[in-house]
Fold this protein.
Amino acid sequence: MLAIEVALLTGRYVATAVDDRNRAEWPPHPARLFSALVDAHFEALDPSTDERDALEWLEQQGPPEITAPEATAREVVTVFVPVNDTSVVGSLDDEALTVREARAELDAARPKGGKPLAAAEKKFAKAEARFLEAVRKAIAPVPAGKEGKDGPGKASSILPERRTRQPRTFPSSAPSEMDPAASRIVFAWPSATPTPEQRSTLDTLAARVTRLGHSSSLVTVRVRDDRPEATWIPDDTSPRRAGDDAVLRVVGPGQLAALCAAFELQADTPGRVMPASFQRYVRPRHASVASAPAPLLGDGWIVLRRVAGPRLPSIRAVDVARTVRKAMMAAYGPGAPEILSGHRASGGPSERPHLAYVPLPFVGSEHADGAILGVALILPRDATRDERLAVYRALDAWERQRRHEDEEAPTLPVHLGRTGELVLARIEEQASPSTLRPATWCAESTSWASATPVALDRNPGDLGARDPQKEAAAYAEAEATLAAACERIGLPRPSRVTVLPAAPITGADKARRFPPFHAGKPPVQRVLVHATLTFDAPVRGPILLGAGRYFGLGLFRPLRGHG
């Protein structure tokens, strides 16, 4: 058995969630602990071979159990900090990036030889020369009398107190108990059998770790001989229950080598997505406690909030969703994977759940008007490590393209033709509107109502038939199709389905106001209907039904008080 204890010296843990810059990470991810140990290893003037061997042994022990107290997310306050001297540093960064890209092309051309290699060598030489010239200009003194009228102003702008400032947030969590023991987190590998030498080496290395997460998150770390009862355990099979499961970043074989490679590649411009695997964790539960059924799509959302542009009604949901999908795929580059596109390499539709692009309408309150307040990127619960990384990397690349100077949360434009440009950004503050909170759409309930109409998988017939029998038969067929759709996404069959001629939630738009939706090959126009669902026992969201569920159609909201 191996257990590593992390004590929070300041009583709080400062770290940003991987999918939301303004939400605190809790519990601390095992990958962060491993990265902190690696950092301590390389901080030494002469890194020990024994330490490297111990780290390579540790990365092969699998995801650890975690003992962490309950924590409260502290209020996120926006502060403004000075940026770097962009007139100098920015230009050097650009030239350095060009050099790295040219070097990568040169390395790729070496096996080919001939003209491709000669062209790559020439491009690299030019890029290197431009970079050296930029460095020379940056450090060269300005001759007397050549400062120009703007010289003093530009020089003084380099001083920290005169630099332009950008907003920053530092999300943190604090254990809710006052007992000093509550500020300790333990990572335990029950089946690990380290040698006495490995245990001693890891303890020595852990003693040199001073922070976990942000630099203000001061810690002490040590190896301990016992392990407390786990509060989070790795588990991919047990039923899911709201608040009782989380996806954490962990490490596997090759993690140390991957971190070293990422450092060499990103030493000057570090990225937000570092090497890691993803593992589902659950809270240990008593066997007699039943868990509410959950659908195939998860409740760990990446939410993009509308910050500018037209206030669009929910009838534009599919347009917005498709445009965001297009932007994500373009940011990823050629060969966008199935998780992003929803299509196999052969061009056919995906046969397994993939990323859903879901516009979130303002519905369900007294003054709701159905306007789209943001877009949720919703991953399947069983998404693999590579699939999750593909989504995060695509979003990170999109943000990199739009980031200016030292900006932390760049805006992401979505071009909607004549309608104009809808501007999105990752959630700006933790106290976001309820419409943009996953809990609003994923809470347990027995009764649910559609916020956007469902594009039925099958044509039910004429719902507006004058013949009462034909109309009743069409409604019965539509309700049966919706019941089957619930089972298709992993939920039990509802005890009652009611197809409605009007929207069942305040602010939701009528189905007939939505533009025609086509799906399938060849494309077939689908019938759009609103509905309510009733289950015998509470189920969890998000509930997205029908042929348009990956583009925001068929989005259901739980009704208060379980209906």
Remarks:
- The chain has three domains: 2-76+170-282, 84-163, 302-562.
- The CA atoms of residues 2 and 194 lie 7 Å apart.
- Residues 302-562 form one domain.
